[in-house]
């Protein structure tokens, strides 16, 4: 029925963790982190940068990311500020190279026999993008902003790379070596395939806001962008790009986005929102609401009827929700701000409590490839402690006969099944409901199927469902005295 692995139901590996959290943006936003090579201080004189200058810039940005542990978004932004004459095509090219290099950092390093930023960028261009040595020679020749000429060692690595067949599985999968046992534990014989699927670019997914429009209307509106319907989510649209230099459209400037008719939301999150199955008239609490994407999806499913409460411990993450609510036309949402102590009145009264728990973000590596290399044992351990705490706190809000939904954007069993199993062992009044049967009821049996060891929970992944990685489980609260 579902893609299964005999190891997933009872994860044995609890990796300890040492990292800068993948979504941490606390690093100083200083352009000083970008290497100030004299060649790159005045590359731009108002015209688009040539290929050689773009490659040199990509190497410098990747150096900033790998050596200074700068988040990729920050490093690219800082480079853009330091080189304001670069055009949008230049920035797009450099960003694409850097992100593709990060997606396949281990495998490209192995093929090149060197893990320097320069080797990884050159290997990405040739082994991933299809450039040739002749392309690079022609670009570098006579360009004062070009990187230094290819060495004999680099020429050999670009023409006769080391065969990945002889590499360890974690290298083939482009997963950090310390995390590989836990990753393999989740996917068994298909772990390499799943890792490779997490190392390619993701499409742009949109959720159609059914409070304002229909999917057919939005499909017609985004014809020029090449939109198609998502394979699983009933209100989703998908836009992909062709080729390594392709650029996704800026949907946020389109009138349909400005009018709240569509939201940017990966299909996995849309699927999870649908599986929460909120009913019009119910009381629903989104306890880790973040910027409100899932909250808005729930409001549409509830047809603006009932009470939908949104809360997040981080005011910064919660802050976009107000404008998004107004744009979407959602009228049944109450936002609870940390420190106001307004959630207490909901304890024991909520029909569905949703916990989209803080996690490693391993399921989003296609979109945030630098996150998988910044993840550490210490950070993962911190996230797991946070998950155990938030699921216990969430349980206090569920009314008898209500539901507790626990989900993450991770594919690591220790953050997923292990947390749920531990919770229900300690709280016997909560009973796991078959998420596998729920999947079949909602999405049928003929299409893509998620991973599941026993049908009680499901894990979506790029290789199995064509989405980001995402874990979903649902428990019913059935106290004996009820």
Provide the fold topology.
Blueprint: H1 38-41, H2 51-68, H3 72-82, H4 88-103, H5 105-112, H6 117-128, H7 133-140, H8 152-159, H9 169-173, H10 180-187, H11 191-197, E1 204-208, H12 215-221, E2 228-229, E3 236-239, H13 255-258, E4 262-264, H14 267-276, E5 283-286, H15 293-301, E6 307-311, H16 315-318, H17 321-328, E7 333-336, E8 350-356, H18 369-374, H19 377-395, E9 398-408, H20 417-426, E10 430-433, H21 435-443, E11 457-460, H22 462-465, E12 470-477
Parallel strand pairs: 5-6, 5-8, 6-7, 8-9
Antiparallel strand pairs: 1-3, 1-4, 2-3, 9-12, 10-12, 11-12
Describe the structure.
The structure is a single chain. This protein is an alpha/beta fold and 482 residues long. Among the domains are: 31-166, no CATH class; 204-264, Alpha-Beta Plaits, CATH 3.30.70. Helices cover 40% and strands 13% of the residues. The protein is built from 22 helices and 12 strands. The protein has helices spanning 38-41, 51-68, 72-82, 88-103, 105-112, 117-128, 133-140, 152-159, 169-173, 180-187, 191-197, 215-221, 255-258, 267-276, 293-301, 315-318, 321-328, 369-374, 377-395, 417-426, 435-443, 462-465; strands at 204-208, 228-229, 236-239, 262-264, 283-286, 307-311, 333-336, 350-356, 398-408, 430-433, 457-460, 470-477. The strands form 2 sheets. Strands 5, 6, 7, 8, 9, 10, 11 and 12 form an 8-stranded mixed β-sheet that branches. The longest helix is centred in the C-terminal third of the chain and has 19 residues, at 377-395. The protein is globular and about 80 Å long.
């Amino acid at each position: 029925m579902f893609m299964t692995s005999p190891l997933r139901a009872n994860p044995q590996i609890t990796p300890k963790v040492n990292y800068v959290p993948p979504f941490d943006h606390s690093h100083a936003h200083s352009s000083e982190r970008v290497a100030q090579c004299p060649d790159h201080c005045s590359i731009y004189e108002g015209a688009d940068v040539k290929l050689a200058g773009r490659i040199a810039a990509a190497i410098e940005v990747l150096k900033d990311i790998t050596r200074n542990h700068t988040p990729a978004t920050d490093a690219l932004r800082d480079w853009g500020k330091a080189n304001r004459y670069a055009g949008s095509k230049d920035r797009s090219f450099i960003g694409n190279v850097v992100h593709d290099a990060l997606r396949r950092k281990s495998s490209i390093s192995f093929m090149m026999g060197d893990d320097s930023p320069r080797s990884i960028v050159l290997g990405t261009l040739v082994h991933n993008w299809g450039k040739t040595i002749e392309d690079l020679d022609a670009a570098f020749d006579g360009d004062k902003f070009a990187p230094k000429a290819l060495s004999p060692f680099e020429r050999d690595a670009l023409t006769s790379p080391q065969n990945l067949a002889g590499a360890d599985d974690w290298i083939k999968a482009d997963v950090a070596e310390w995390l590989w046992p836990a990753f393999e534990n989740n996917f068994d014989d298909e772990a390499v395939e799943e890792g490779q699927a997490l190392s390619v670019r993701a499409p742009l997914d949109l959720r159609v806001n059914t409070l304002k429009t229909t999917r057919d209307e939005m499909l017609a509106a985004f014809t020029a962008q090449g939109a198609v319907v998502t394979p699983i989510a009933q209100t989703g649209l998908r836009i992909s790009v062709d080729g390594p230099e392709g650029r996704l459209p800026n949907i946020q400037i389109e009138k349909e986005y400005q009018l709240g008719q569509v939201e940017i939301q990966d299909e996995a999150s849309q699927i999870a929102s649908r599986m929460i199955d909120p009913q019009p008239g119910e009381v629903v609490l989104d306890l880790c609401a973040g910027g409100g994407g899932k909250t808005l999806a729930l409001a549409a499913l509830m047809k603006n009827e009932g009470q939908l409460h949104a809360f997040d411990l981080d005011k910064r993450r919660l802050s976009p929700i107000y404008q998004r609510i107004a744009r979407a036309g959602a009228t049944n949402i109450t936002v609870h701000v940390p420190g106001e102590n307004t959630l207490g009145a909901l304890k024991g009264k909520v029909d569905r409590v949703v916990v989209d728990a803080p996690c490693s973000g391993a399921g989003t590596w296609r979109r945030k490839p630098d996150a998988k290399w910044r993840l550490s044992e210490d950070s993962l351990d911190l996230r797991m402690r946070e998950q155990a705490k938030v699921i216990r706190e969430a349980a206090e809000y569920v009314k008898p006969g209500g539901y507790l939904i626990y989900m993450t954007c991770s594919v690591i069993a220790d953050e997923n099944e292990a947390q749920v199993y531990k919770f229900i062992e300690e709280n016997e009044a909560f009973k796991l409901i078959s998420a596998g049967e729920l999947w079949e009821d909602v999405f049928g049996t003929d299409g893509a199927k998620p991973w599941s060891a026993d049908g009680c929970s499901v894990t979506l992944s790029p290789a199995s469902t064509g989405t980001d990685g995402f874990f979903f489980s649902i428990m019913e609260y059935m106290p004996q005295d009820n």
